[in-house]
Design goal:
CATH architecture: 3 Solenoid
Number of strands: 28
Strand order of the largest sheet: 1-4-7-10-13-16-19-22-25-27-28
Number of helices: 5
Distance between the termini: 54 Å
CATH topology: UDP N-Acetylglucosamine Acyltransferase, domain 1
Radius of gyration: 21 Å
Helix content: 10-25%
CATH class: Mainly Beta
Number of domains: 1
Largest sheet: 11 strands, mixed
Length: 293
Amino acid sequence: MDASLPRAPGASAPARPGISPEAVISPAAFVAPGASVAAGCRIGPGCIVGAECELAEGVELVAHVVLDGRVRLGAGVHVSPFATIGLPPQDLKYKGEPTGVKIGPRTHVREHATIHRGSVGGEGWTVLGADCLVMCVAHVGHDCRIGNGVVLVNNVMLAGHVEIGDNAVIQGGAAIQQFVRIGRMALVAGMSGVERNVLPFGRVKGYRAKLQGLNTIALRRRLGLSKDAVVTVAHAVHDLYRGGRPEDQVAAVAAAHPDNPHIAEILDFVRDRGRHGLCPFGRVAEDEELDGA
């Protein structure tokens, strides 16, 4: 029996392979044969769940959600109306290969957000961790790797292959270029254009984003660092940039702070600089801010 057939409101899903009898599926939803829907899932009206999708316990698709391709939603994931997950990547090289999206437990995906499946040019999967919040109209491009607890505010745009560390915050309207890496607990200010990598705990801003300093709120509140400890990390970052290329200052900064785990994390990130290098350090000029408005 097809899960889209009418039944009493709030009734369990009809018996069908892969569909838990404890799932609640609207008569106005379509769940394709082959999909896996666990106990406690709720699928609202207008939702479309493709044949290769797997929904863990307690997933809720509120209404008019589209899941396509190999989508894996962890326990307690919540998806708001008109979001789409797993549609093909906006990559001209993509030829329909069997790639997909994985989203960790308790992540919330809000209205009109789009999360595209991976490509064979990456590792085949777009991945979001647990406890993330993807706000309205945000876009997560193919092959992105998003850590746990990440917040993408409204209208954030992530190109393909972007990597974001745990508990980073990307504020509204920011655009991240492909293959850029954003470190753990970094903060990207709203409307910024990020073309280079952002240090862990870094705070960047600007039409062409520059490092403004540290995300001191995260260091104090999330890590519990004292004011003096935060100042020590800030001085180390200034020392990285003071002599020109940060990559050339790693050894000296490491020698000056041999037992500081937060500075060590920053230095490891600098060593693994990737293809884009690091955001430059500097204040954003007022006219540049106006140009980016």
